[in-house]
Amino acid sequence: MELTLWTYEGPPHVGAMRIASSMRDLHYLLHAPQGDTYADLLFTMIERRGKRPPVTYTTFQARDLGGDTAELVKKNISEAVERFKPKTLLVGESCTAELIQDQPGALAKGMGFNIPIVNLELPAYSKKENWGASETFYQIVRTLLKKEVSEDSSICAKRWKDLGRRPKVNILGPTLLGFRCRDDVIEIQRILSEQGIDTNVVSPLNSSPDDIKRLIDAEINICLYHEIAETTCEWLKRNFGMEYTTTIPIGIENTINFIKEVHKKLDLPLTNQEELENKSKLPWYSKSVDSNYLTGKRVFIFGDGTHAIAAAKIAKEELGFEVVGLGTYSREMARKVRLVAKDLNLEALISNNYLEVEDAMKKTSPELVLGTQMERHSAKRLGIPCAVISTPMHVQDVPARYSPQMGWEGANVIFDDWVHPLMMGLEEHLIDMFKHDFEFVDGHQSHLGHTAVNTNESEHENLIKEDKSNLKEVIWTDSGKAELTKVPFFVRGKVKSNTEKYAQSKGLSEIDDETLYDAKAFFS
Amino acid sequence: MSKVLFDKETGPREVFCGLTSIVWLHRRMPDAFFLVVGSRTCAHLIQSAAGVMIFAEPRFGTAILEEKDLAGLADAHEELDRVVNDLIARRPEIKTLFLVGSCPSEVIKLDLATVAEKLNKKFLGQVQFLNYSGSGIETTFTQGEDGALKALIPLMETTDEEKLLVVGTIANNVEDRLKKIFKNIGIKNVESFPPRQSTELPKIGTNTKVLLTQPYLCDTVRDLKHRGCEVIHAPFPLGVEGSTKWILAAAEAFEIQELKVHDVIAPLISRARKALETHKEILRGKKLFLLPESQLEISLARFLHNECEMNLVEVGTPYLNKELMEEELKLLPENTKIVEGQHVEKQLDRVRESQPDLVVCGMGLANPLEAEGIHTKWSIEMVFSPIHGIDQAADLANLFSRPLKRNQILTTKTLATSK
Question: pTM of the entire structure?
Answer without folding.
Answer: 0.90
